[in-house]
Design a protein that fits this description.
mainly alpha, Folate_carrier
Length: 498
Amino acid sequence: MEAVKRWMSDWRYPTTLLCIYGFFSTVKPLEPFVIAYLTGPDKNLTTEQVNNQIFPVWTYSYLSVLVPVFLLTDWLRYKPVVVFQCVMLFITSAMLRWVTGVPAMQAMQFFYGMVTASDVAYFSYIYSVVDLKQYRKATSYSRSVQLLGYTVGSVLGQLLVSFKLMSYNNMMVFTLVLTAIALVTSFFLPMPKQSMFFHRKHAATKGTGTDVDGTVDGTGHTSNSNISVEEMRDDDVEKRGETEKTNKKEPHEKGPEVQDFVETSGTDSCTKVLVQLWRDFRQCYSSKQLLYWSVWWAMATCGYNQIINYIQVLWEHVQPSQDFSIYNGGVEAVSFLMSAATAYGIGFTEVRWEHWGELALGGFSGLGAAALFLITFTGSIWVCYAGYVIFKCLYMLLITIAMYQIAADLSMERYALVFGANNFGALVLQSIITAIVVDSRGLGLTIIPQFIIYASYFSVIAVVFLLRGLFTIWTAKKHKKENSPDKNVSPGFEEHRF
């Protein structure tokens, strides 16, 4: 019993539960075949209805609930939103199985928008219950197991379809069982005691009657977020600390006494929290380099989401037969595995991304645009599959680099804020493109013109960041030349330096 208690108090316990939840909530055997399911005899919808009337609802729903869900995630301390996400996923799967018609499918997409918006709780929860030194491992495990779940779901779906072991309707029932396992697991997740903004702790020094203007994050680590906004206050804090040291009565005490942490969860007004959010937001995006990487993140993620949403419609157009989707599961599995390998390989590259990164963003975005043009105009489903895998790997490569570079300039407390802001920007762009290009109330374009626009969109991204990358390299070389030692050191001195 004692061993069980020790294990439950260790960081591995919540990480293991979150990984179990992440795995079973992402195993979706039907996902690679959802277009075939919706346009087949089970739902009897047309491709135009799915493309122009049903799928756009997800984009609008995701955008409309992202900010409220982000704030609720912090206010409710993560776990309730994780449970809510699984409940919404269960409802979405049940509706996909048992309801029919365009309005019902649009409602299903609305609920699925809530599911994807709640991902912020899944990725933020772990930082509130584990120690800072375990962040890297916990993040790696929770993200990797999600990718594993998608891969297993794709492979499983491919096997079930290829060997005709299950109908599409039975695959949905199977998905509901897996989702139920994830839901039960979510109830056992430990409840965090703090969060980033609504449930934080202020540090107060004993015996002095003054509060140190800092906060403690969900794991108990002090974070002087207010001080970081107003840098001039650092000197005042240091001086105050020195004064406290000299005023101690006991000569053997060498520093201030241990701090107490007073939680200010429910008493903090919403206005105060929003002000703090805005201050942190301005502080984060004050870095021009971080701003450029974030702009690429928002633009590229917008285009990537559009490709993922409508790629099966393109595959159906390229091979318009009843068995057009027979290999979709295998292709998705390959794309997930190769994307994981590509992203994992970034950790072993010795490249100065702050110097070459923008050029890489432009160059690889250009290759992605070329892959999109290829899959748009090809008549071969195999070429279309290959181009999709290439495009997905390139995006995963670049988004991994972008996340790393942005994280390098941030404290851990602000990751969710910046990543959430970048995703919100991507959703705004995506909603605009969807409303104009895809929605039946807009242009309502067919799939080929849509993909021509998406490929052109990535071409624009490539040109912009190639020019920006070349300018960055030219500026760095110019700066290096201006500060060259040859201009400041007399001839012959360099020859004797070691």
